[in-house]
Amino acid sequence: MPVENVPRSYLAWMIESLGVYAIILPFLGMLLFGVSCIVVALSKRPAVIAACLVLVPLPFIIGVFAFLNGAISAFQVIANSETAPAPRDVASGIASGLFAPLMAIEVTLPGYLVLAFGLLWRTIASGRGTARPPEVR
Known about the structure:
Helix 3 (about 45-50) packs antiparallel against helix 5 (about 85-125). The termini are far apart. It is elongated and about 85 Å long. With about 140 residues, the protein is an all-alpha fold. The protein has five helices and no strands. It has one domain.
């Protein structure tokens, strides 16, 4: 049986469609999740946690870049083909373009939720979210 007719597993397809992003996105997501947990556990000030919320969407920004990269590669296959391009070649670029942002959202969400709930918890614990009655002199 030729190698081209062997069905690939779904995991192999995901890794192939992501390319280098299959390593970058999970690593960055785990790193940011760990940093988020440490910041929430050690920081007593809500402003520090709020400042860290800026860094959490970094994997999603890389996922958007992967989307654009996959779209460009799909259009290059179409543009460079003398005849109708093979659907498999076009589909790999489209799959990379669509699957990378999905994976980026999945690895971004846990760190974002930890920081968001940590910010809420620290704000309530610090008493800054409560209204204080005016002082009487």
